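Order emerges. As here.
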Amino acid sequence: MSGETRRFVAGGGWHGLTIELENMSDTALRDITVGVVKNAYEMAPDAPAEQQEYVNIQRWDEQSRTWAEIPWDKYEMDGRLPPVDIAPRKTVTLQLRMSVEANFPHGTWPELETEFIGNGYISLQVSGLDEEGVCGYGGLWYYNIVKPGTGTGDAGASEPPSSSEPEPQTGGAATPTTTAPAGDLAHTGSSSALPVLGLVGGTAVVLGAGAVYAVRRRRAGTDAA
């Protein structure tokens, strides 16, 4: 995953995110689904609270040529994108956008006299009809949240205008694509087995993301109890 910026101003508008899926095999992949896991934490000296419900992510819908909501679970953590098909040796680009609400919770901490009020990360999970041979590799995509009215400090992180709609790429499935913005994470390795699907630009190791996700769910259940 890559993004226009890793520094999000609370109430500062939308910024683009890009996911690239590469079919590294000679076989067409059908109904590949990408799960988006978002995490956000209030900046605090101890036990930062989870605040992902204040982070909004939308997907570009090619059919309607509009931004569409992603359905999230009750924890506002786990979302799922519509399935895509990927032709052999082709790359499909998925376009998202992200914003942080102006009322993102934050306290006044003498230990943290800074503009930063939160942080988080996004991970991706890939699945298909045939689980065997479909894998992802990379790392987590981290970001920071700063106080309302603070500058982003990143060039090219302005809110995308309505005239700058992504255009469908050639080859593979018809999905939106834009010029890749700065901020890619480096690849951190791949599966020991030859993968047929690569998540280009720093996506999460599927098993690791799932483990974090399960721990968070259990902790949420414990807190509720």
